[in-house]
Amino acid sequence: MSDNHLVYSTDSGRISQPKPEKESTGKIFKDGFLRIERQTKGRKGKGVMLVVGIDAKDHDLKKLAKTIKSKMGQGGAVKGGTIEVQGDDRDKLKAILEGLKFKVKIAGG
Contact at 8 Å (CB) between 72 and 93? Predict the structure, then answer.
């Protein structure tokens, strides 16, 4: 039992351990553009669009994903510093992101 953590002390009561902050490890590009990629790997042929290159320190990824998903009318998630949106309508997604004042490029084929 080397991972023994103090939970309660009779001197001071409950001991709260500091929780480490999660670092989102998304790709950030030097040119400042966001990339919209299409991916089907590991999804049984179903395609998703990945929005890559958003700095998590400057933008709240969950709020941005919620805005994108509601405007697109599709589902999605935030995973590992990227936003996943279901479907394959990259032109519509590009127009939405440009309306939110982002510089966007469509990456991949």
Answer: yes
What are the tokens at 46? 């179903």
Beta bridge partners of 38: 49
Task: Give the torsion through C-alpha atoms of 52, 92, 32, 38, to 10 deg.
Answer: 30
DSSP string, the chain: -------EETTTEE-PPPPPPPPP-----TT--EEEEEE-TTTTT--EEEEE---TTTS-HHHHHHHHHHHHT--EEEETTEEEEESS-HHHHHHHHHHTT--EEE---
The pTM for the full model equals 0.71
Query: pLDDT for 30-80, tens place per residue?
Result: 788 899 999 888 878 788 999 998 888 888 899 999 999 999 999 999 988
